[in-house]
Amino acid sequence: MTYDETLEYFATLGKFGINPGLARIERLLDLMGHPERRYRTIHVTGTNGKGSTAAMLTAVLGAAGIRAGLYTSPHLEDYTERFVVAGEPVGRAALAAAIAHTRGFVDAMTAEGREHPTEFEVLTAAAFHLFAQAKVEYAVIEVGLGGLLDSTNVITPAVAVITNVTLEHTDRCGATVAAIAAHKAGIIKAGVPAVTAARGEALDVIRREAGAKGAPLYVLGRDFYAEAAGHDGLRQQLAFVSRRHGDLGRFSLSLLGRHQVENAAAAIMAALVLAEEEKRLSPSVIGNGLAAARWPGRFEVLPGRPTLVIDGAHNPAGAAVLRATLDEVFPGRPVVFVLGILADKDVAGVRDALVRAGDSVVAVRPQSERAADPGLVLSGLDAARAETAATVAAGIDRAVAVAGPDGLVCVAGSLYLVGPARCYAISGQTPPVKL
């Protein structure tokens, strides 16, 4: 298969939708000889921050000289971004070969009369195969949705991480924080250490599940602590203390925002737990990894004028964190938002968490079939200026004009918006519509 043929194949898989459950992926991996068992893994879930935390952990492993893989979703501009080996996305040819390999087993599976795997299940199986072929020592695996029934939940990791839990995917994971926490806690395995920054009712659920599984649980605010220690607009410092490991001093992080302090704390604690067996890890190595960690599209400040911030916030909790970070890093500055939100998200909740009366909004349609109409995004909005634009590129151009050279523009609302917006801001072009 060529890369273009791979994209065409992905398009045919869309008809199988999102179908939680492990039976299909378990059979597929069984036919493939269980590539996911050929290296150690770290499993990461959470409502927000799981991608950032996974990226930090991968950077820490790399700083230790450990060959590591990283599997995340969705991508911003190219499918290869989802599959990272030794710090770099795999090439298109390598991805196409992995999908072709996996497709052969999919065909064998359906020939048995079994249900066809979903697109995400095929991608997950291909990721496990890619990492085995690349001879990684560790793979950091980000959950796609929830945890308990997610197709990544076929691994027994060295450590599990649950960043936080708020309401999202209520149609699939339940209508309450407790129900969603039960899905997130589903990645906890018997006897496997788990780390979490969850609080309140969600933490109660996670604590009970860890207790039932005999899994050691490390909780932010109880077993380890972190606080912001200043920033210069490009990097921030955080102070970290662990009951078990003592005061480890300050760490430097290029990812801005107080929420990233919590994510970094979870990554540090997970690395410290892993270091009890993995002697290549140490506090200094962890610090080097965190300093090197990058995660595009998450409070990413692009160079140039006006100031342009791109962030993947797509639920009310993430939007509230983005707003707080804007206020912290750029205090007192009105914002011109370029907003594009998916229709199956809490459109009003995301918008209202971000926009204040003195701000302006240019609403656009993300590159997704699930995109909300820009008019819906603006409905009932209280802002200084509100308008729509026909394309992502036109929306950014309009926002830049409204902001002026000394202004502040923020693109947010969906990762399906962030990728094309980032591409346009950097190169002047937007990528093809995602399949």
Account of the 3D structure:
There is one protein chain. With 435 residues, the chain is an alpha/beta fold. It folds into two domains: 3-292, UDP-N-acetylmuramoyl-L-alanine:D-glutamate ligase (3-Layer(aba) Sandwich), CATH 3.40.1190; 300-427, Alpha-Beta Complex (Protein-Tyrosine Phosphatase, Chain A), CATH 3.90.190.20. Helix content is 40%, strand content 18%. It is built from 15 helices and 17 strands. The strands form three sheets. The chain has an eight-stranded mixed β-sheet with strand order 4-3-2-5-1-6-7-8, with helices on both faces. A six-stranded mixed β-sheet has the order 12-13-17-14-15-16. β9 (224-231) and β10 form a beta hairpin. The longest helix has 20 residues, at 92-111. It is globular, with a radius of gyration of 21 Å. The relative contact order is 0.11.
